[in-house]
Amino acid sequence: MLINLFGEFHGPEVIADFSGAMLFMLAAHFPGSEQTAHFLVSFLMGVVGADTTLSIVKPYLPVDAFPGRETSALICAR
User: How many separate domains does the chain show?
Assistant: First the structure.
């Protein structure tokens, strides 16, 4: 994937961020001009907040479950 050429971005994490932002946009009804801004903020929050979301969610999961950054990015972007 070409996204792997940009350093810290990893393909599965970016796809999860994109999916979470799209779910957010499908659930919310914003006017046309605001949709792009809300999508970008949601997408960037998924990228930035993945580690924090993982640290918050991890104590509530069973011991044998270990979600990756992709799962936490999807949750954070949503």
Answer: 1
